[in-house]
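Query structure, 143 tokens:
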């Protein structure tokens, strides 16, 4: 059962995003990025109070994804990324992004905090950050 509303176009859009943000990080890297995106659609807190669809999440400004400003984001969605997007839309979570709302790729080590949010882990080049439960309990709700 899907944890967010997503039609075929939404799944393709999320697939394009995860490919653009993390193709070089392999299957798990793309699943982690998808976790962050789906979490942003699920919650109603912090920077994501009005983000209620995959399209709004992908193109959120400010606070959105850098990849949407790059030509490689506009490549056609491939079946392998669509399948990964579907897994997360259907409720699969992966550590360290299972409750994360942010990630970024620093030049060096992961800072302990990023915009006031705590680092919960790294996968390859990306660091993942999740909010304190008092700031955003929604993200910790298990479906």
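Result returned for the query:
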């Amino acid at each position: 059962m899907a944890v967010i509303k997503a039609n075929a176009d939404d799944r393709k859009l999320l697939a394009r995003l995860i490919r653009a943000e993390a193709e070089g990080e392999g299957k798990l890297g793309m699943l982690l990025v998808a976790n962050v995106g789906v979490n942003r659609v699920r919650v109603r807190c912090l920077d994501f109070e009005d983000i209620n669809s995959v399209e709004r999440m992908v193109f959120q400004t400010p606070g959105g994804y850098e990849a949407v400003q790059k030509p490689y984001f506009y490549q056609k969605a491939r079946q392998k990324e669509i399948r990964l997007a579907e897994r997360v839309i259907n409720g699969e979570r992966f550590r360290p992004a299972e409750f994360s709302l942010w990630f970024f790729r620093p030049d060096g080590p992961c800072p302990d905090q990023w915009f006031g949010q705590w680092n919960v882990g790294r996968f390859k080049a990306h660091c993942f950050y999740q909010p304190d439960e008092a700031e955003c309990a929604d993200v910790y709700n298990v479906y």
